[in-house]
Design brief:
The protein is mainly α. It has helices at 23-39, 44-73, 80-87, 99-117, 121-130, 144-154, 159-166, 176-182; strands at 7-10, 16-19, 93-94, 97-98.
Amino acid sequence: EKATGVEIELDETNDIRISSFDSTRREIARVALEKLIKDGRIQPVKIEQIVAQTRADIDKILLLEGRKICQEVGVFNLPIELVKEVGKYKYRFSYGQNLAKHTIEATKIAVSIAYQLRADINTVRLGCLLHDIGKVVSDQEGTHIDLGIELLRQYKIPEKVITCVAEHHQDNFTSPESVIVYI
């Protein structure tokens, strides 16, 4: 629990439940716990070693998954750290749907609409890819929209894209691209 920042519960049927609002921490804890149980040496030093190794492994997976998602929707040249944030979509579910799958589907649909309406395709593509990025920010308080906007500004994402992210749950829009991302 201390090493991963999650809560581990053992219920009356001896099932282990890992609890945390941070889906990446849950995955690190799950994988590390499986490794520890398989190894059999559950001691403080071994726990720290396995958690550190698992964290590094998951970090590589986040980058790989982020690159896969970006490539799937045709987005390239994002900062590496932002690609890792996109990779966190793999472990995040919203309304029962995996965030990676949702984002890929939404982006493909939005790009098709943008082509048909002759809207700015690159703004729509990036806006859709990043519209829910705030859902994977777990170390701060706020709505996923506000957290997403703040994160995107840190990476100097174009303001037109940030506006699409900001407006994707509204009914007042400042551009056709925002309407398409909303749809």
